[in-house]
Amino acid sequence: MRQVLAILTVLGLGASSALAPGAAHAQSKGEIVIGVQCDRTGPTSIVGVVLCPAFHDYVSLVNAKGGVEGYRIKAIEIDHEYKVPPAVESYERHKKEGAVTMAVYGTPQIYALTAKLTEDRIPGTSPGFGSAAAADGARYPYIFPIAATYWSQGAAAVDFAKKQLAGSLKGKKIAYIFYDNPAGREPIEVLESIAEKEGFQLKTFAVPPPGVEMGAQVLDIAQRYRADFVIAHLFGGAPSVSIKEFKRVGYPLRKVVSFVWGAAEANIEGAGGFPAAEGYYAMQFAGVGTDYPVLNEIREMYKKEGKEPPKGMASTVFYNRGVLIAALHVEAIRNAVKAKAGGKITGADAKAGFEKISNFTLGGLVPPLKITATDHEGGGLVQIWQVKDGKFVKVTDWFAAYQDVVAKHIKDHGAKK
Amino acid sequence: VFHRECGVFKTTYEADMAFYPLPVARWAAAVLAVIFFLVLPLTLHEYYLSVANLVWVAVIGALGLNILVGYTGQVSIGHGAFMSVGAYTAANLATRLDSPWPVNLLAGGLMAAAVGAIVGIPSLRIKGLYLAIATLAGQLIIEWTINHVTFISGGVQASIEVPRPRLGAMVLDSQRDMYYFLLVFVVLAIVGTMNLVRSRVGRAFIAIRDQDIAAEIIGINIFRYKLLAFAISSFYAGVTGVLYTYFLGIANYEQFQIGVSIDYLAMIIIGGLGSVLGSIFGAIFVTLLPIAIRYSMEAFGGIFFSQATVLNLIPNLRLVLFGALIIAFLIVEPEGLNRLWRNIRSYFRVWPFAY
Questions:
Q1: Chain A CB within 8 Å of residue B343 CB
Q2: Strand runs (DSSP E) across A221-371, as ranges?
Q3: Under a CB-based contact definition with an 8 Å cutoff, are residues B243 and B105 in contact?
Q4: What predicted TM-score, i.e. pTM, was given to this entire model?
Q5: Closest residue in B to A310 (Cα–Cα)
Q6: Cβ of A5 and B332 within 8 Å?
Q7: Cβ proximity of B95 and B251 under 8 Å
Q8: How many CB atoms within 10 Å of residue A225?
Q9: How many other CB atoms sit within 10 Å of the CB of residue A179?
């Protein structure tokens, strides 16, 4: 009996996988495929569950409005649980389906796919993660950060601190508290360069993974080091913990600015809600809030279908980032299609399309990026928003700082290898 | 592997230990070789070959871990770290000295073997769960070192790009090239492991697993063989790490974190501890099952749910189904897929007569 059962199980499994069709809809005429990688279940699922549906919403909106120059956009999403082997599999699957651009998700994943993307000539994006050196379009022709890298974020954070501290950093003390992984340590070299230039004292405080234990570091910052300003670069649940800890030791949150992954509604709610985080500054690479024309159009689209807009839209930071990523992909495809009238576009065309993106702001949701063949970051623009009266309030408009220092580091990195 | 035999008529030890117990086994191996070396790579789309490549990497790693856990009975949660030792050794050699890949491969394997033997030292005094924690410490120390020592990691990003392997003038960059490249090492690993476990060393490993005091009494040098088991297993891991690095074109610290060690443990437990075929089955199962589940969901999910729901459902349901199927398989056959396969074989051996 047991054997029979076993055989049936094996046969059943074999049959179900054999029955599953190859899903081999190649890029049919009038359809352009974007490969979307996603993490709805892994360690960064807090981002993925909002960001990925936003991507699809924007693509649906574009298709509802007649597509891109008559072409329909098809976004094929594959979830990789933030693991590398499934990301490789998903990349090859997207390639098979004829994807002309790839929205890669996750730092180890973009590293693992860099060689393949370049060999296969398909542009891949890494907004807000991946290597800062990839902004160098000459060295990494098919990698597009398309948003402020950690180097630009670090530079912008120092500039913001300078403005908050009455325009001079001379002799001031700045603390950098970071998640102790490669992404967390990446900005340190840029911060050190700027510290030398501006004459402030920089001290770094590492938070070991998984980033839930940082009482000692925060106490050190507040009581012993007595920092004049704090730059925080934490991931996952760590930003919420940091807000709580700063509160606990009585350090004013209006002296803390967080990088982009500690800047969402979810991070604030995790720290005990908006009232608890009053004053906290958060850096953004996409606009925050619901007040953008494109978001109204998405809500309209749902209304027309007789449906409620998705709940994820309330989590505006991640949702708007998803819209931003999708919009830049679609815009790159639009540029490519325009440049190649009537022809089928390839990855190389889409790359050229990305490099033509300039002043595409989507009503303020997207920064006025200027992506060129050499600058795949587009200027390193960010906004700072502050937690105030139960919501995020915009403090600065789009700005970038110390781009000369960042450019020098990019150049040095390119020369090193 | 795929043959049927009828009765046991062995009269010598040689016959019992033979690599091919029956002439038909030789034929089966030849047929498999033709399928995997000619039919599959020449007919399948690159996508399927990329999936096969992921399986091949996993097979070598699982074989290595099975030598240690399955054959020698020493639990290790440090396999991912040993892979990273091999990967970073090779990546540093490739970028600093520009050395060819065979040298890097060997160096990566040997370096991992050396580190593995050191991490294995606690196994001389402790066993079971205690040893698992000691190897876990090894994993964390190696992870920390690679993360922080820029001499090894090549910079704060802890990732080193390596050039594609070359064979003469040919650069191995497509998935098809990689398929052959990896398959050669899979064959070497399988043949190597099968021969290892039927040798003097392999028998010593098994003796230590079954009862280490008894093994010591019959004259097996426990110190030597336990460390040897760690070294050989880590050598496999190091080679896996190097192959993975060449496959991806980059060595990155986040590719070898503790989750990877757990995945490999899962492979050999699902496949069957202490069996070569089990390691292969386990590697295939763990790599392919999520993909198979996703394809099934994509095909049938749309019947019941809207597109947006399906997208949200696939990753979640895949995790649940994956877990459920592992439990189901282990309930059906606690000794793993290898035992399941043997049961099926022995059922058909006397078929249509039950028992």
A1: yes
A2: 229-233, 256-258, 281-284
A3: yes
A4: 0.89
A5: B308
A6: yes
A7: no
A8: 17
A9: 26
- For residue B259, what is the nearest residue in chain A, using CA coordinates? A83
CB-count exposure of residue A1 (10 Å: 0-12, 13-18, 19+): exposed
Please list, in sequence order, all residues whose beta carbon lies within 8 angstroms of the beta carbon of residue A1, skipping any fewer than 6 positions away.
none
Q: Which of B46, B173, B315 sits opposite A41 (nearest CB)?
A: B315
Q: Residues 50-69, chain B: which have Cβ within 8 Å of A?
A: 50-51, 54, 57-58
Alpha-carbon gap, residue A140 to A137, rounded angstroms: 5
Q: Give contacts of B347 with chain A, Cβ < 8 Å.
A: 3-4, 7
The conformation of residue A377, written as its DSSP 8-state character, comes to S
Summarize pLDDT for B100-135 with one digit per residue, the tens. Answer: 999 999 999 999 999 999 999 999 889 889 999 999
Task: Please state, in angstroms and rounded to a whole number, the distance separating the CA atoms of residues A396 and A391.
Answer: 15
ipTM score assigned to the predicted complex = 0.87
Q: How far apart are CA B307 and CA B315, in angstroms?
A: 13
Instruction: Give yes or no for residue A220 having a pLDDT over 90.
Output: yes
Please check the confidence at residue A18 and state whether its pLDDT lies above 60. Answer: no
CA distances from B159 to B148, B239, B248, B253 (A): 12, 18, 12, 6
* More confident site: A364 or A19: A364
In 10 A of CB B130, how many CB atoms?
Answer: 12
The residue to which tokens 């001031």 are assigned: A172
Tokens of A157: 């954070």
Chain A residues 278-317 within an 8 A CB cutoff of chain B: 310
Tally of residues, chain B:
355
Rounded mean pLDDT, A206-212: 89
* Residue A25 confidence class, pLDDT cut points 50, 70, 90: very low
CA B22/CA B13 separation, integer angstroms: 15
CB contact under 8 A, A115 and B164: yes
CB distance from B319 to chain A under 8 Å? yes
Nearest-Cα residue of chain B relative to residue A108: B254
The whole-angstrom separation of Cα A364 and Cα A103 is: 22
pLDDT tens digit sequence for A284-332: 999 999 999 999 999 999 999 898 888 889 999 999 999 999 999 999 9
Asked if residue A406 lies in contact with residue A151, where contact means CB atoms within 8 angstroms, the answer is yes
Encoding tokens for residue A263?
């800047």
Taking the Cβ of residue A135 and every Cβ of chain B, the question of whether any pair is shorter than 8 Å is answered with: no
Q: Using N-to-C axis directions, what is the helix angle for B258-271 and B307-332, rounded to 10°?
A: 50
Closest-CA distance, B195 to chain A, in angstroms, reads: 29
Q: Output A306-312 pairs: Cβ under 8 A, ≥24 positions apart.
A: A310/A53, A310/A57, A310/B308, A312/A49, A312/A50, A312/A53, A312/A54
**Structure letter (DSSP) for residue A260:** G
